[in-house]
């Protein structure tokens, strides 16, 4: 029927519509699936491409880092083996390239050079910027350096909370070469700065030139040193002959290593009775350099040089008896010669004395003495050669560079450096410090030096309190410090100052009782208070017993 046909057509149309909708949906879903597949494929391809790119970047970065490391290591090698200014410059060129590649150690080197003024390029502002950048990267050396600069207020705001009181860990050893065998003279600027040594007849102008050669080590300086030595040797200077021998024994750009030439000049000096020449001959025979090993001859020359007070010869004698090299072991004689050499600051002699005390070899074992001696060895480490560069910077008028170097050594606990830093600050010649901060910082450094037993520094503290330098005027405190210097160190200046204060009644009325207590402290030692408590207890017991009777 028509109705059935209509119904059937409607049904078919409905089915077709449904089918179209379903097909449309399926097609749409299929397209979406296809698109998703293509998209996923693209993502995967893109991810793979990105991974490849990252891998290449990482590889390039690694190659870049490796190249920076190689340049830094090459620079270190050249610096360690350098015997000329040209070689040092080459090393720092490599450090600069490595630093440009992001090598942190090279950047630390460049920052140090900017801070200390190596090669005359001191720039504290640039050094601080570099240290700050390194500190963010986690460099403990940079953090320590910033702490040091902040503790002195050099180039940045002064922060007393960052004072390290001698425990500063900044490493300057990397900037210095090994010791040349002569104990480094720590010149006190407060004494006679024109004399490099005030306590040794051996050290004269010739050795001044050698010290300058050690401090600067440039090609020009080596040529100069050799020129002066040859000229002085021709004029009959035994010291010059000995140092020419030393230069040829060790070898450098001006005097290539030559044992025969070293022997010749050592002999010339020894014939004049020169201790350095005699010691040089002893070394040649002891080590067999240019001559057969001959311990008997070495012993003979070492003894002659030791008798003339040369510390290196005294050490060599001590070592021969300590080790039994060519002689019977004799720890008493070893101790004797090590002790003699140690009095002139010979580092190895002090070390062996420390070893003997630590192990009880030839002496009664004493850990306390050993520790004190080991501390002495640490203070004579090759970083102490910074005293040379600091001193010559001062002599050449480079006050800022000298002050930074002395200040660093002061933070490492060197009393002489603390005094010298205070002396420079007091002179108000430094440009890197604000003038109003110089006296307070100088007072702090004089205090540190006084704690380590410097009588002159103790008087200086009294002066600062007397005149109100870097602190308020305080006659009582001034008198306290003068009395310590007078009683403990018999300082003539301190005695005069106290007499003047007594005469004019300056801070003495209040001070008299305190001085009496201080005298009691000097008589009975640091435990006088315990002694007095004990005495009072005895008196009380005595009174109680008498009452019961």
From TrEMBL:
InterPro entries linked: Sel1-like (IPR006597), Sel1_AlgK (IPR050767), TPR-like_helical_dom_sf (IPR011990)
Pfam family, one: Sel1
Native species: Sciurus carolinensis
Entry annotated with the keyword RNA-binding: no
Family: Belongs to the sel-1 family.
Transmembrane parts of this sequence: 527-544
Protein name: Protein sel-1-like protein 2
Assigned keywords, A-Z: Membrane, Transmembrane, Transmembrane helix
Biological process according to GO: ERAD pathway
SUPFAM superfamilies linked to this entry: HCP-like
